[in-house]
């Protein structure tokens, strides 16, 4: 009944409602190619390919994939047949030469491949990732002002992430290596997840070689602005210094001045105001005593005496003092 269908060599028969049904077993894509870095691809250089997670296959791979019943987006498992190291990737274009596949350079390093080595490529179905933990391989990654935004932009060039891979991203003309420490769900085949159209939680581990700085004690605001705090004086004296009286006498000690009463001090002031002495310029050197005015009487100040008025009065009174004499005696 099925003679003449050479493409279907192996058949599986199942019975549903007593009706035989036949399925095409050729639903997997498995090919072996020689691998080369994307920098050797002919045409214009595209850095997003070298710092991403997608490969470039030949056109014949597209024709074969189109005839198979595979899921989209197209995801592949890459395996080094010599050491069985593996990783996962998406596909970007089908423009490679026949028998060749072009990989990002970091992917060739992860799989320990060199130019021209054979690599086995097989289509894969990976679950959508929910969590990934990464570790930068250099403390320089901390110099980025917003690493979360940079990483989110860089992961747009990736379709899959595999635990154990060390991917590379390019930011401000500097290459940063990042290792994938953990992925979830953990039951994914070969520890790979798909990150296409999914909400992915990202956790950062401390970078390799990072040493946390010891915490310094908190400084007070006064020490930050270099303000010297006042030093408490243990010896306090109520009246430091030496006291002096109004008259020009020898200075007394502070203890004797403190012991003098206010009544004695006022009496001295009254006595000195009554017996005030003038200095060389005619100014009164002593301070007048307090005024004890009766109730209802106002005081508008002392009488103003011009400077040198007393001397003029004395000079006027003594200008023609004495007895007059004649040169000739008077005739009687």
Automatic annotation (TrEMBL):
Top-level taxon: Eukaryota
Extract the GO molecular function terms from the UniProt entry: polyubiquitin modification-dependent protein binding
Name-wise, this protein is Ubiquitin fusion degradation protein 1
GO process terms (BP): ERAD pathway; ubiquitin-dependent protein catabolic process
Query: For the region Disordered, what residue ranges are annotated?
Result: 256-285, 311-332
Give the Ubiquitin fusion degradation protein UFD1 N-terminal subdomain domain ranges. 29-127, 129-207
Residue spans crossing the bilayer: none
A cellular component term from Gene Ontology for this protein is:
VCP-NPL4-UFD1 AAA ATPase complex
Q: Read off the Gene3D superfamilies from this record.
A: 3.10.330.10, Ubiquitin fusion degradation protein UFD1, N-terminal domain
Q: Which InterPro entries match?
A: Ufd1-like (IPR004854), Ufd1-like_Nn (IPR042299), UFD1_N1 (IPR055417), UFD1_N2 (IPR055418)
Keyword vocabulary terms for this entry: Ubl conjugation pathway
List the coiled-coil residues.
none
Family of this protein: Belongs to the UFD1 family.
């Amino acid at each position: 009944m099925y003679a003449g269908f050479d493409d279907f060599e192996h058949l599986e028969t199942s019975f549903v409602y007593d009706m035989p049904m036949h399925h095409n077993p050729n639903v997997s894509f498995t090919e072996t190619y020689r691998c080369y870095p994307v920098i050797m691809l002919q045409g214009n250089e595209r850095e997003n390919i070298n710092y991403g997670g997608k490969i470039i296959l030949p056109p014949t791979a597209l024709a074969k994939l189109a005839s198979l019943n595979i899921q989209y987006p197209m995801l592949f498992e890459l395996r080094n047949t010599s050491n069985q190291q593996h990783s996962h990737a998406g596909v970007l274009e089908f423009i490679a030469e026949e028998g060749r596949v072009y990989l990002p350079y970091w992917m060739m390093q992860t799989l320990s491949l060199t130019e021209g080595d054979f690599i086995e490529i097989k289509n894969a179905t990976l679950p959508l990732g929910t969590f990934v933990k990464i570790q930068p391989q250099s403390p320089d990654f901390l110099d980025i002002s917003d690493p979360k935004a940079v990483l989110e932009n860089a992961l747009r060039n990736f379709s899959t992430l595999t635990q154990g891979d060390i991917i590379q991203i390019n930011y401000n003309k500097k290459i940063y290596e990042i290792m994938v420490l953990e992925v979830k769900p953990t039951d994914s085949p070969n520890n790979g997840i798909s990150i296409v159209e999914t909400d992915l939680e990202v956790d950062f581990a401390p970078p390799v070689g990072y040493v946390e700085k010891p915490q310094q004690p908190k400084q007070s605001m006064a020490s930050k602005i270099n303000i010297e705090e006042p030093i408490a004086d243990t010896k306090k004296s109520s009246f430091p210094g030496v006291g002096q009286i109004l008259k020009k006498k020898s200075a007394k000690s502070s203890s004797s001045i403190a012991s003098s009463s206010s009544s004695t001090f006022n009496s001295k002031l009254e006595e000195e105001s009554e017996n005030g002495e003038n200095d060389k310029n005619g100014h009164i050197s002593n301070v007048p005593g307090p005024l004890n005015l009766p109730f209802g009487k106002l005081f508008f100040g002392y009488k103003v005496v011009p400077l040198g008025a007393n001397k003029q009065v004395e000079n006027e009174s003594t200008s023609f003092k004495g007895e007059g004499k004649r040169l000739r005696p008077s005739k009687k």
